[in-house]
Amino acid sequence: MGKIYLSVAKIEYKNSHPLLIKILNMIKHKRIGILTSGGDCAGLNPAIRAVVYRAVGTYNWEVFGISQATQGLMERPPKTIKLINEKIDYLLTAGGTILGTTNKGDPFAFIMPDGSARDRSAEIIEGYHLLKLDALIGIGGDGSLTIMRKVAQQGNLNFVGIPKTIDNDVNCTELSIGFDTAVKIATEALDRLHFTAASHSRVMILEVMGRDAGHIALNAGIAGGADVILIPEIPYKIDRICDYICKRQGLGKNYSLVIVAEAVRTETGEPVTINDSFGQSRFGGIGQYLADKISLCSGAETRVTVLGHIQRGGTPSPTDRLIASAFGVAAVDLIAEGKYGHMVAWQNRQVVSVPIADAIAKYREVDPNDTLVKTARSMGICLGD
Ligand code: F6P
Is 375 strand, coil or helix? Predict the structure, then answer.
């Protein structure tokens, strides 16, 4: 095989027939890098596993896992682990990412130990070349894909994206890795809260993640039998929620389950956030805000559960394993085809590829006319409006 690669590498085939270019590109030996960037979620490891199976197993390429998102490429020597078929079987069921990740490493404004911000994008490009990579696969959400595309454009790097985020807000794809597991966990939480709500005649509020999009709340809310679903895309009135809960009480239903997405604002439109010790603001607290209002107007004892990072960790669901596997294989095939600047996506039960530019043009929020919104309304679930 070594001889074939050597001779193929020497052929000048740039002006040949496209099919020939494709075939030659497929059999030409490649060194590819893979990194995970942004918040972790379930399904990253199965995607890494699929990339290695396809790249090493089918094409006989070499795959280098890059540590801590783009930061591994800033280190000297670049921090990587060589990924081989024999050592990765266990990844199918493993949560998190064996490569490590960060959601605070913007290389264009990288925070240095002295607190200053520095543009370190050139170091990433240099790291790519030091590793002699032919292509790089980045698994990330819209923020990470935006950054990685910018670096790739600046350095003329061969880059392919795989969408991941529990928020499911990457444009052009119906599913991103991690979403299904997060919905499953939030649904299980509602299933459990149901019993305590009924036993104590309480209103139980579950606050879930999702950043600016309400996909987790909407999906888990329907699947988990919530009575009230509040998402950022649909403004609400406290009175509507209280009337609904009181009406249920009047019908002898002594409890109610409320699910609220973290980015839902106060009734008057202020974001509800908390500041961490680094002075960074993040969503949190809308559940308690609602609890205070609802208990006042309905008289019901009200409790809040903030699900937090439980939604991101743990064993990936079967659906996440499936799309991660399909995405991993398809991303490697994009490299084989030389189709760079693209992201793999899930549309109508097919893996397709879309320009990353389209995927990051906007984030995918819940459409108020979405089938699931209509389903919720048709079943009498209160959406607060
Ligand atoms: O984007 C994924 C996500 O889990 C959001 O749903 C959430 O708002 C955020 O990340 C939490 O980030 P961190 O892990 O930095 O607290």
Answer: helix
Identify the helix (H) or strand (E) that includes residue 155: helix 142-155
- pTM beyond 0.85: yes
Q: Which residue's structure tokens are 């294989």?
A: 329
* 164 CA from centroid of ligand 1 (Å): 12
Residues 186 and 294 in one domain: yes
Query: Which atom of ligand 1 approaches the CA of 216 most closely?
Result: 6
Q: Any bridge partners for residue 209, and if so which?
A: none
Would 77 be classed as within a structural domain? yes
Domain match, 44 and 157 both = yes
Domain that holds residue 287: 182-311+368-378
Query: Which region holds residue 285: left if phi is over 0, alpha if psi is between -120 and 50, else beta?
Result: left
Find where tokens 């009135």 sit. Answer: 237
CA-CA distances (angstroms) from residue 145 to 95, 340, 368? 21, 13, 26
Locate all alpha helices (DSSP H) within 156-237, ordered by sequence: 179-200, 215-223
Q: Could you check whether the bond before residue 77 is cis, i.e. omega within 30 degrees of 0?
A: yes
Q: What are phi and psi of 238, to 5 degrees?
A: -55, -40
* Ligand 1 atom with least separation from CA of 210: 6
Residues 290 and 267: their CA atoms lie apart, in Å, by 9
**pLDDT tens, position by position, 115-143:** 899 999 999 999 999 999 999 999 999 99
* CA dihedral (212, 216, 217, 218) positive or negative: positive
- 276 is an active site residue: no
* 155 domain residue, yes or no: yes
- Amino acid making up residue 137: I
- Among candidates 312, 363, 311, which has minimal Cα distance to 188? 311
Give tens-digit pLDDT for 67-107: 999 999 999 999 999 999 888 989 999 999 999 999 988 99
| Ligand 1: centre distance to CA 211 (Å) | 7
